[in-house]
Amino acid sequence: MLRLPSFTYLQPKTLKEALAMKADAGPDGMYVAGGTDLYPNMKRRHQEPRTVISLMGIPELRAVGRSGGRPDGGVVLGSCITLTELSASPPVRQSARAVGEAAGLVSTPLLRNMGTLGGNLCLDTRCNYYDQTYEWRKAIDFCMKKDGHICWVAPSSPRCWAVSSSDVAPVAVAIGAEFLLVGPQGERVVPAGRFYHNDGINYLTKQPDEILAEVRLPAPDGWDAVYHKLRRRGSFDFPVLGVAAWVKWEPGNGKRETGRVAEARIVLGGVASWPQEIPEAAAALRGGELGDAAIAEAVAAAYRPAKPLDNTDFDLSWRKQMTRVYVKAALEELRRRG
Q1: Percentage of residues of the chain with pLDDT beyond 70
Q2: Which residues contact residue 226 at a Cβ distance below 8 angstroms, ignoring those fewer than 6 apart?
Q3: Predicted structure pTM score
C-alpha cells in the first residue's frame, strides 16, 4: 500500500494568509486544492512537501460571477470550483459550454467532486516512466523529471518529454481565457496560452509562491468551441489526445453570422508538454467558409506537427493518425452548430 509521508496541513481563510504561510514554509511548502493530483504524487514521492497549504477554505476561490457585473460579460471562475460544479454551472453552459464539457470528461464522478478547475489547469505532466512507484523508478535509476538524469522516452534528449494531460487547459487556450495570479509581489493577469512552457519539468510560467486565483472566460461574441477527447476507456483515463477547436464567425446583418470564419484556433492536448496550438491549422480556416476543403486543409496542417511519443497509452503512430480523425470531427461539429 502506498502511504502519504508525514506533513503539516494548514487551512488559511484568505489569500493573504495563504501567501504568508507559503512564505514561512519556503520551498518545503506547496499549495493544494482538491488534491487528486498532489496526494498520489506524494505517495509516489514525486513531490515531498513538508507543509501543505489548502486553498479550499478561501471563499473567493470558490466564486462564480460575471465580468464587470454585466449579464452579457464573460464569466469569472474561482480556481477552487470543483470540476463537477464547473460542468453543471449555468453561466458556463451559456457562455462557454466547451469548458464545462471538458470538465465533465475528466476522470470519474468521484474525482470530479474533489478535483478543481485550478488543479486541472496546473496538472503535473505525465509519463509512463514517471508515474510509477518510488521502487519501480529506482529500479531504472529514476528519470530526468525526478531524481534521475535521463529522459527514458528519448535518452539522448537534454529535456523531459512528459506530457500535458489536462482536459480543460486546451479549451482555455483555444477560447483565449485569462488567468489571474496572486503572489507576494501582487497580482498579474496571464493569457492562458502564455501560462504553459513546452517543458515536461518546468511546464508552468506560474511561480511556486503564486496562486492561480481566477479564470476569466471571454464574453460570447460570435464564437463557438468544442472539445474532443481520445482515451482507452470511457471514463477515468487521462487523454492521449485532446482536440480543442474554436472559431469566431464573421458578423452578418443583425444577429446572423455569414457562415465565414473570421478567426480560429486549434489546440492539441496529450501530445506535447503543453497545450499545443497549431497556427497553420487556424490559417487554413480563416477568411472562408467551414467547408470540406477548408476542414481537410486544417486537418492536414494539424497532423504534421503532432508528434506523440511512446510515453502514454496506445501505439504512438496510431495516436498520430487519430489527430486527423479528431480534428476533423471537432471542426465538423462546429460546422453543424454554426
Answers
A1: 96
A2: 98, 101, 244, 245, 330, 333, 334, 337
A3: 0.95
